[in-house]
Task: structure prediction
Amino acid sequence: MKNRKLSLVTILLIGVMVTWFFYACAPVREFMHWKSYNGNPSFNLSQPGYVSTKKSIILIADTEGTEIFDLLAPYYLFSATEQANVYVVAEKKAPVIIRKGFFLIPHFSFEEFDRAGIQANVIVIPNLSAMDSRHQNPVIVNWIKNHYNDSTVMLSVCDGALTAAATGIYDGMPLTAHASDYESIRKQFAKPRWVNDKRVTHHGGLYSTAGVSNATAGALAIIDTLFGRATMLGVSNLINYTTAPGLTTHNSIPISLGDKLAIGRKVLFEKNRKVGVLLQDGDNELELAAILDTYNRTFPKSLESITLTGNSIRTKYGLTLLPTTRFDEFEPDELHVLHSSELLSNSPYLKDPSIIVRYNRQEPLYIIDECLDRITSQYGRRFTKVVKRLLDYN
Result:
């Protein structure tokens, strides 16, 4: 009888531990989970203007999933030159799942762009939904190939290298990727000339960058070539980016076992916050993307974008964004806000104003560095190193 009770207690304890472990690991499951858009899939937004004397920059988006900083950082930087037509183009005119943060309405579907007769002077390929060579979307791959010629400038960002390599355009040309995925991607595509420990690679009109955070350096390198050093430095100063223009060396440090253990310790024994990011009209695309992408890599309990009305917003340079949830359906532990708003102060859903995290953009600090400084104060320098490696920010 005694042994039976002991067995039951042991089973109960094991059950409690398994249940605790399952829920404690929710942030790890959340890291690679993103929502599908459940609203009206059809949008008839007016198409942006076109100025024939300007270069046309085309950023590819994948409706099934596109990396946020890979897309929005170049979008902001090219737009800030005020010397380019900058468009987001996708297979369908439908909400694009932006990992991890919100839904974006592309300016054109592939078909609409082709009907418009615009020549793509620059094509930017972010990390898209296909995570290996077998699942590449042939429509996207072929569209890129059909719009490339010898005068086209192309930028592969982070693991956009998978799609770039699949086009064959980089065969024999330098190509790089995120430090943690570099070896895996290189084994799948043998024909590009794979380069490690470079922030940006460049041969003729073909550029590529290391992971995520290096989208900034890649876009600035092309701006330097197309629009001149003065324009590039002006745009760089807008975001307080201080890396020397010609510096391309990079510490390609993949995620290690020790980093994974640090993630495990944080997830199991630290406070895993519910993080909200407020979307507002006029938001700076690069800053918004940096906050969402950096905090996603802290493995929060959840990460959601919110609008005050539940409707779409228009960013600084005219992107239409839709939130992942409504303010009345999500109670964050911290709410990140890029600029103040009377609507926020008067919102009936903001029960505790102390949860607001504000950004002092008057300080000359690059937005990723500002986010990392705060993460260090929350979780320490060791965990911040993990976040930097996940961003490939080394």
About this structure: The mean pLDDT is 88.
